[in-house]
Design a protein that fits this description.
The structure is a homotrimer of 132-residue chains. Chain A is an alpha+beta fold and 132 residues long. Chain A has one domain (2-72, 81-131): Jelly Rolls, CATH 2.60.120. Chain A has helices at residues 18-28, 54-67, 82-91, and strands at 2-7, 13-16, 33-38, 44-50, 94-100, 103-104, 110-116, 122-131. In chain A, the strands form 2 sheets. Chain A has a 5-stranded antiparallel β-sheet, with helices on one face. In chain A, strands 2-7-4 form a 3-stranded antiparallel β-sheet, with helices on both faces. In chain A, a hairpin with a 2-residue loop joins strand 5 and strand 6. Chains in contact: A-B, A-C, B-C.
């Protein structure tokens, strides 16, 4: 299992980690199978989406900020980051990537993102490969 | 790895692909393990939900349309389909299905859906099986 | 594959099933690989999030209740639980957990939750392990 550090710089930020996932695959040496890109944090997530136009990430973060505002009436959690936990579960703690012929099988526009929702922080991503 | 074409007919549409997943399993020849049903597109997703009453899908699409409207103030992405990208990440780029005794292990009411959020388009679903 | 019963007591409730997942791993006997924690129901889900302060779960359920109210204009599904199906797809039908050195690799604050959205009910969780 690979553990890869990721430094984030904003409270809410998507970091494109596609090249880190590819490098991990090169170390993992499977040719057919899949990998789990896992986030061990409860206020961050992993998602796969468009990695070409950064405006897509801008718009996704804008929507998340509007739908899950930082402070909300009735919230009890003392750390004041319940919005971060909610966003984490909406996007999910891991993403699965396919491997064929020793290569990541991503769609043409797809990239893998580490989604920070309570930064800036030093984070980790864990990657496990399984196959032949 | 199987690549299966899916033709969609609406901008927002859930296509029940359960029988296609079953056919892929028959080709994949594992008896115990699991499969990844993967969407290589950034404006579509995979989800598992009720496949019996089509009104469930109607209501899910209605809610998504209300919560993630097509046009929103502040959106920058030039293609005008940021709502599609957001819905894609909310539902997720893949679903995992279990296999036991050579059969898909779905709950009684569950089906696997390809979720189109920027159709109509010709799409693909990729399926990878791993096990014994 | 393990099938584990879970009894829920509220309409909307997160049940911490981390210890059940650990017990299943002990039976599954893999040392390196991963497991799929799968929900075979269409009005419930699996998520990984903070298991330390119960106020986090309170706030997540409050947000879900506000964003996906029980009754909504235009909903057609006769059972009246479309909100439950929507929440299920937002959080997802399964979560993947990593295994290294024979142990679950969860982050410090992470736990695995069965998310009930149409309880109280007697439910099942299915867990499949794959690795060495």
């Amino acid at each position: 299992m690979d553990t890869i550090p990721v430094q984030t710089h904003e409270r809410n930020q998507f970091v494109n980690i596609t090249s880190l996932v590819r490098e991990s695959l090169d170390r993992g040496r499977i040719r057919e199978g899949f990998g789990i890109v896992y986030c061990p944090h409860t206020t961050a997530a992993i998602t796969i989406n468009e990695a070409f136009d950064p405006d897509v990430v801008h718009d996704m973060l804008l929507w998340l900020e509007r739908q899950v505002p930082h402070k909300q009436a009735g919230f009890r959690h003392g750390e004041g980051n319940s919005d971060s936990h909610i966003k984490a579960s909406l996007l999910g703690s891991s993403a699965t990537v396919l491997v064929a012929g020793g290569e990541l099988v991503l769609g043409q526009w797809q990239g893998v993102f580490f989604c920070e929702f309570d930064g800036p922080r030093r984070r980790n991503v864990q990657i496990q490969w399984l196959g032949n």
